[in-house]
Amino acid sequence: KILDDLFAPGHSIFSEIEARFDQMHATLKTHSNAQYNFLYDQVVSFGELLSSQIISAYLNQEGVQNTWLDIREIIETDQNYRDARVDWEKTVGNISRLIEPSELYTTQGFIGADPEGFTTTLGREGSDYTAAILAYGLNADSVTIWKDVPGVLNADPRYFEETQLLHHISYREAIELAFYGASVIHPKTLQPLQRKEIPLRVKSFIQPANDGTTVGKGVLLDPVTPCFILKKDQVLLKLSTLDFSFIVEHNISAIFKTLHDHRIKVELMQNSAISISMCLDTTFGNLPSLLEELEKEYKIEFFEGVDLYTIRHFDEESIKKIVNTRPVILEQRGRETVQLIVRADAG
């Protein structure tokens, strides 16, 4: 239907898209017994390939000459499927060799290829990361990312009624916000841009004439205001030693290795002499198998479905907005940041 609406019968895009679907069916048949994360990357990548081919063909039809580029020929990664790490040396070499800066290209975000040529994906916000990778390799003057929000806000409008546009943010502040879970920009998108001091602009495709947010050198935060970040459906895990011995370095090292092996991310950690509490993101991990392994060495308490609130540049009034009538299970404060774990169903 999309092709029928955009192109005349007989256009080459029809056979190109048909060939791409045939390729997808062949991939599913060939790798039907493959490991899940590997197969996931092979399949989801077709959305990027199909959509970019259609857009490239349509732009050429309308007189905007461009070249369709398979980004998998540019971005080389390891084999950590669903969250692949970029081989920067090979990727920058490919950019220099295969991309002509004066030409216009249509390509994909989110995907790359491993040394054997199999498709990989770059994890959360992988399309923005792709733009940063290309900007780094091309020594770009700036990068603009188009979103469905006015720019970077001090809170996610899906969860907070009152939000404020941040006009300017430093690289450091943007990385801090992203580290704690702000959804507009991911830290890995910012890191290559910061290394070459390439400004990042976040703008709205709904209101493209508006300035949006600029991330770069200089002003830490404009305006200076509390920034709220919410991570829902987390797990609060408390481990205590069985013999009341101290939790020391070798315990923490072993615990973190176990978490890494189960692909579970620690969002917050707080420890006492004989226990350690952690807020966990189990999106990619296996919580039951983690608990089964840890209970061999520790007494375990855990709460599923908790909310983790982080407030940057907090004041007491901003904390009151979060806590309200809900009991705080765990709180951790620093000079600029406070984190609160509350029951999602409380209040």
Structure in words:
The chain has 347 residues and is an alpha+beta fold. The protein folds into three domains: 2-123, Carbamate kinase, CATH 3.40.1160; 146-225, Acetylglutamate kinase-like (Carbamate kinase, 3-Layer(aba) Sandwich), CATH 3.40.1160.10; 228-343, VC0802-like. The chain contains ten helices and 15 strands. It has a six-stranded antiparallel β-sheet with strand order 11-12-10-13-15-14, covered by helices on one side. The protein has a five-stranded mixed β-sheet with strand order 5-7-8-6-9. α2 (12-30) packs antiparallel against α3 (36-61), α5 (126-138) packs parallel to α7 and α6 (171-179) runs antiparallel to α7.
Give the structure's gist in a few sentences.
The chain has 347 residues and is α+β, with helices and mostly antiparallel strands. The protein contains ten helices and 15 strands.
Oligomer: single chain
* Basic shape: globular
Quick one: biggest sheet? 6 strands, antiparallel
Question: What is the average of the pLDDT values?
Answer: 94
The number of helical elements comes to 10
CATH fold topology of the largest domain: Carbamate kinase
The percent range for strand residues is: 15-25%
Task: Provide the descriptors you would attach to this structure in a database record.
347 residues, 6-stranded antiparallel β-sheet, alpha+beta, 5-stranded mixed β-sheet, VC0802-like, globular, Carbamate kinase
